[in-house]
Amino acid sequence: MKKYILLFLILILATVLRAWNITSSPTGLNADEAALGYNAYSLMLTGKDEHGHPWPVNLESFGDFKPAGYTYLLIPFIKVFGLTEFAVRLPSVIFGVLGVLGIYLLVFEVLSLYHPLNPPINLRGGNPQEGVILGLLSAFLLAISPWHLHFSRGAWEVNVSTTLIVFGMWLLVKWLKSPKLYYLLFSIFYFLLSMYTYQSSRIIVPLLGLGLLIMYFKNFKENIKQSVLAFILLCILLIPLLISVIKSDATSRLSGVGLLADTGPVERAKELRGQHESWNSPLSKILHNRPVQYGLRFVQNYFDHFDGNFLFVSGDVIERSKVPQMGLFYLTDFIFLALGVVFLLRTQHLAPSTNIIWLWLLISPIAAAMTFQTPHALRSFNMVIPMTIIISMGVYQVIKFRKLFIVLIVALYVTQLSDYLYRYHVRYPREYPAAWEYGFKELVAYTESVKDKYPKIWVTDKYDQPYILFLFYSQYDPRKFQDNHSLTFRDKFNFSTVRDYDKYHFESAPWDKVRNQHSALIVAAPEDIPDQGVNVIKTINFPNGLPAFKIISN
User: Fold this and answer.
1) Helix axes 201-215, 157-177, angle to 10 degrees
2) Could you tell me if 315 and 384 are in contact, meaning their C-beta atoms sit under 8 angstroms apart?
3) Secondary structure of residue 322 in the 3-state scheme
4) Is the pLDDT of residue 120 over 60?
5) Are 107 and 392 in contact (CB under 8 A)?
6) 3-state DSSP call for residue 376?
7) Is the distance from CB of 81 to CB of 214 less than 8 angstroms?
8) pLDDT tens-digit profile of 168-202?
9) Which of 515, 524, 523, 525 is nearest to 554 (CA)?
10) Do the beta carbons of residue 114 and residue 125 sit within 8 Å?
11) H or E element that contains 36
């Protein structure tokens, strides 16, 4: 009974930390969130996405063809709460809390009572309660984890996808321990559902599946009928995804940000070959070529995600994916991580079970390493689950050594959590206001109120994809938009955008380009217009007081 009370309290804590003030912290709705919400709105009203595709598996959105799972998840929330920030972010909050529950269930199954393989061996020689304790510790640490908190508060598809993988893994472990068909089928279902939710899962899940098949081949072989039925279900669930990949340009995102899009390794190969006496010598060709250089870059990208500075000190370079001057984990987590690794290496009798944790950790950065933007907190988000489990093992070793250390550890985490909350809710909006497209809600409200006075409204596109934010906040009729817009040609990152709909035109707005736009309303970034001689009728400021937009009546 006590464990359920503690788990309930942890889930309450997780809920409060993720749900409190989600409509205004983060400070604005970013373009990806708006796209998920508006497409759900469009599907709800018309059965088609913003571009007129009926019930798609992948959303064309900005030309990047993102998985549509989160969008479908949003439809009932938008039906109930309307097209709002709250409705768009609430599913991520819920799945963030479910992730905390899921890690408890997973750790309990992996480490308590008996491991998945025969013979039945207890954790550390006969204390089944240690599985409960480690499960609760893992849940608590994930509940307060900066990495998990950050991606649970916005409409991040990766958060939903990761939680689905957690439950898929939990059910698979239950099947390994007690081979009931429904455990295996539901495990396959959750794994596959994650692939319909986030791009990186389409790489991580197959690799996890292959690794688990190799590790537990004996179990699958001994339950061949169940394995065959699971394989049939797998094939059936994969059909829509495969059809979508074939019929659409669903791989365009990878071609835009993938490792091969970076010409750096090619130039490096040429440079190194030029250092040889003969450019075309067999040795220079063998040592310095495209496969070798891209392979080395992949390895470098992969290990970038285990860099201590990235994990514990400064975090991601992308402002939307971090808080100021803080890592993805707390600084003291480094100590507990090291202790947890030592614990796992010293407890070889647990290897049949804990190998799952190692496998998950080693596979998690692979998708991110296949891009040229590394380290990347979003694409490597799956790392948070196995790393939190290992950290919890380190914490447990300290507590087990001296019970008095519990007070010190609690004090450390309370202090660090308080610091994180201050950085997230106070410093974050002031220091990185543009990261979340702050100001668009006020901007759209104003332009919509005066649009009848102007034949044309020119809006700067300096901040990501402004058209989708205007569609979202104005709740523009999807039927009108579907038939009256077009996407631009793809840029170097394979993104497209919409330049025109209704009275709106979205493009960079330097003064020499827009000064002759007479009888127009012009929304410009402050740096794009002169300080004097311009009829500024309204200024929208960032939370730090600096101007975000200046609105000019020409």
Assistant:
1) 10
2) no
3) coil
4) no
5) yes
6) coil
7) no
8) 999 999 999 889 999 999 999 999 999 999 999 99
9) 515
10) no
11) helix 31-46
